[in-house]
Automatic annotation (TrEMBL):
Pathway: Cell wall biogenesis; peptidoglycan biosynthesis
Record-linked CDD domains: YkuD_like
Record-given protein name: L,D-TPase catalytic domain-containing protein
Gene Ontology cellular component terms for the protein in this record: extracellular region
Family classification: Belongs to the YkuD family.
Gene Ontology molecular function, alphabetical: glycosyltransferase activity; peptidoglycan L,D-transpeptidase activity
Signal peptide start and end residues: 1-19
Lineage, uppermost ranks: Bacteria, Pseudomonadati, Pseudomonadota, Alphaproteobacteria, Hyphomicrobiales
BP-aspect Gene Ontology terms: cell wall organization; peptidoglycan-protein cross-linking; regulation of cell shape
Matching InterPro entries: LD-transpeptidase, LD_TPept_cat_dom, Transpep_catalytic_dom
Active site: 165 (proton donor/acceptor), 181 (nucleophile)
Length: 205
């Protein structure tokens, strides 16, 4: 009887491991980066095997006094945490602002948009005149720098100009390359978008 019980326990452990790769904190979602059809757009598969595993979406142990639904951005380590509560969070790999474009502070999500239009700020157009053709906005699509989703960050002064957004440049995750926005892989930003609510607090460390 005891041998039978041990066999059942072993089988359950094996099935759990197969269902989702586990990490010290919880589940990894490395299998969630396949091709996706979304709102008529065909997002290509991300070659996730080329992305360091620490940047794969995963549930982790994370102690925070912030309430569930809060987003905490660790720019130094290139992680974004969606606080679940009870010492848990969903962690995403991110790309952050390059040298000279770093920032920190507290904001909130004021607007959420699926397949957003991208309008480069006037300062960006001054730095990169070739972007002037998009002064009226770049249509949504697979090459749009905001990717499949964007969440617009506001503070007491209004629109900060910063976004949490998707990116077709999956190889920029874990790097400092943006103009201050926080970028995620498209499959990850869709997941975060579905979790985060308008009004959610965003803390950038």
């Amino acid at each position: 009887m005891r041998m039978k019980s041990l066999a059942i326990i072993a089988a359950l452990a094996l099935s759990t491991a197969i269902a989702g790769c586990s990490t010290i904190g919880g589940q990894m979602f490395s299998n969630d980066y396949g091709a996706v059809t979304d709102a008529g757009y065909q997002l290509p598969r991300i070659p996730i095997e080329k992305v360091p595993s620490k940047y794969h979406r995963q549930e982790v142990s994370y102690d925070s006094k912030e309430k569930p639904g809060t987003i905490i951005v660790d720019t130094q380590n290139k992680f974004l945490y969606f606080v679940e509560g009870d010492g848990r969070a969903i962690r995403y790999g991110i790309g952050v602002g390059r040298e000279g474009f770093e920032w920190h502070g507290t904001a909130h999500i004021a607007i959420k948009r699926e397949w957003p239009t991208w309008t480069p700020p006037s300062q960006m157009i001054k730095r990169q005149p070739e972007l002037a053709k998009f002064a009226g906005g770049m249509d949504p699509g697979l090459k749009n720098p905001l990717g499949a989703r964007a969440m617009y960050l506001f503070n007491k002064g209004g629109d900060m100009g910063y976004r949490l957004h998707g990116s077709p440049e999956w190889n920029s995750i874990g790097k400092a390359m943006s103009s201050g926005c926080i970028r995620l892989m498209n499959q990850d930003v869709i997941d975060l978008y579905n979790r985060a609510e308008v009004g959610a607090k965003v803390i950038v460390l």
